[in-house]
Amino acid sequence: MGNVSPRIWSDILLALRSECPELARPWFNALEPTDLQFGVMRVRTPTETQRQYLRQQCQVAFNQAAQTTLNRLVTVEFVAPPEAIMTDRPLSFEEEGDKPILNPDYTFDNFVIGPNNRLAHAASVAVGDAPGRVYNPLFLHGSVGLGKTHLLQAVCHRLVANGNGHGPRILYLTCETFTNHFVEAIERGALHQFRYRYRHVDALVIDDIQFLGARERSREEFFHTFNTLYQSQKQIILSADEAPNGINGLEDRLVSRFSWGLVVRIDPPCLETRMAILHKKATLRCAELPEDVIHFIAATVESNTRELEGALTKVLATSQQYGGLVNLDIAKKALGDHLPAARRLVGITDILEVVTQHFNVRPADLQGKRRNRSLAFPRQICMYLARELTAMSLEEIGGYFGGRDHTTVLHATRTIAEQRTQQADLHQSLLQLTEALHHRIP
Ligand code: ADP
Ligand code: MG
Predict the structure, then answer these.
(1) What's the rounded Cα separation, in Å, for the pair 90 and 80?
(2) The pLDDT of residue 307
(3) Pocket test for ligand 1, best of 306, 313, 434 (most atoms within 8 A of CB)
């Protein structure tokens, strides 16, 4: 532990778990502070994926926990062992922006198998263990929130683990990123590099491929990428919200190629599976829920697993107000009389937090009166997201952000909506923020 005593470190973890219970994970126990110098506490993470996750999701919380515990200004810096950096990082264009590439929670171990996803799970494991040899391509489809992204990432984790330190070249990305990158490559006249990068991988994993339907030139490019990889027996894994022949705008040659390997549908989970998932998710958040509460949540929220998680989050958050106690009464209070829709679960405070983190500004600044551009822009983003994701009125939103008038909010939302259609990077940031809010585990 270098010059950080075990006692202090455990106090820091304790502070973190009590201040931000939603962030805590059992694997935090494997973190190890190596030294504290010049106000920087270096903490070693076992894997590169974990390091990226911590940096992206937990940086502020760790800084605060360290500061509270040591009572002075400290910044936590996460470092991964060099060998992990070499081997534990699937290749992705998103790495350039240091976005989290894989969610450390999305592993096979954390995936609950039920009748609804048994085949999808088995096929994913098989592909993770014998890429390019069993099902190629593997195509998973199902409606939103049923675990497609989780399974895709679990395969990536498995491929990395099976690489035994020989870092297989895995490209994991969304269809959105593929098309954006393709367009950029054309604009910069860098098509050659683009092709080299996409066609020299051991596994190409593309999430939400349905978006390809609307992009003709990207589709053409993808067709050739597919053929090259397929012919050299490299693994291709795709997910979509529809079966290949149900995707709008996809031509026959792609539909038929997508069906060459194995096409598997994931269905919504039954009650029993939903309960098992809740158990798993609660454990992942270091929380324990009584059986009747698990049953109540699983019976109330039927639609999909993402909403189920949102409901669990809501119950855990409400229980914080009661000193961490979770019982049926509190669960009922948390979920109200009605089934909460996932969108309604996004709270204005979540938006404020996610946006301030993203832009590295303070919440008080966005809620204050100052109007300089560096604050006005993130504030407008907040207003736009609040309008999109909560049921708040223009007046309420204006009130929350420094008592501003509803016309200000309207102007902000229109400005962002318009800029969004013109600026790909803004669009991308908004997608990420929205995704973060929907996945949020407060
Ligand atoms: P999709 O990509 O299909 O929209 P995700 O993979 O994002 O869905 O899943 C939404 C959430 O539900 C994620 O947090 C994921 O971990 C969780 N989830 C879905 N299915 C399962 C499962 N069978 N076991 C555990 N967690 C699951
Ligand atoms: Mg997904």
Answers:
(1) 15
(2) 87
(3) 306
Q: Rounded to 5 degrees, what angle do the CA atoms 118, 315, 293 make?
A: 65
Q: Confirm whether 238 is domain-assigned.
A: yes
Indicate the DSSP class of residue 130: S
153 and 216 belong to one structural domain: yes
Print the domain residue range for 60. Answer: 6-80
Q: Where are the alpha helices (DSSP H) in 301-343?
A: 305-320, 328-335
Region of residue 141 (left: phi > 0; alpha: psi -120 to 50; beta: else): beta
Q: Give the residue whose CA is nearest to atom 14 of ligand 1.
A: 306
pLDDT one-digit tens code per residue, 86-101: 555 666 544 454 454 7
CA–CA separation, 300 and 175 (whole Å) = 33
- Residue 52 CA to residue 244 CA, distance in Å, equals 33
On the CB side of 6, how many CA atoms lie within 13 Å of its CA? 2
Residue 248 lies in a domain: yes
* DSSP string for 169-203: -EEEEEHHHHHHHHHHHHHTT-HHHHHHHHHS-SE
The binding-site residues of ligand 1, defined as CB within 6 angstroms of any ligand atom, are 106, 110-112, 117, 142, 144-150, 277, 280, 305-306, 309
Residue 86 lies in a domain: no
Give the integer Cα–Cα distance in Å for 185 and 176. 14
Ligand nearest to the CA of 274: 1
User: Which atom belonging to ligand 1 lies closest to the Cα atom of 150?
Assistant: 6
pTM summary value: 0.72
Question: What is the total count of domains within the chain?
Answer: 4
Mutate which of 150, 237, 270 for ligand 1 pocket (most atoms within 8 A of beta carbon): 150
Strand partners, 140: 239, 264
Residue 84: predicted pLDDT: 66
Nearest CA to ligand 1 atom 19: 147
Q: What is the mean pLDDT of each run of 10 residues along the chain (442 residues)?
A: 86 90 88 93 90 89 94 92 65 50 90 96 97 96 94 94 77 89 92 92 93 90 96 97 93 95 95 95 90 92 87 89 88 73 66 94 88 91 89 82 88 91 89 84 48
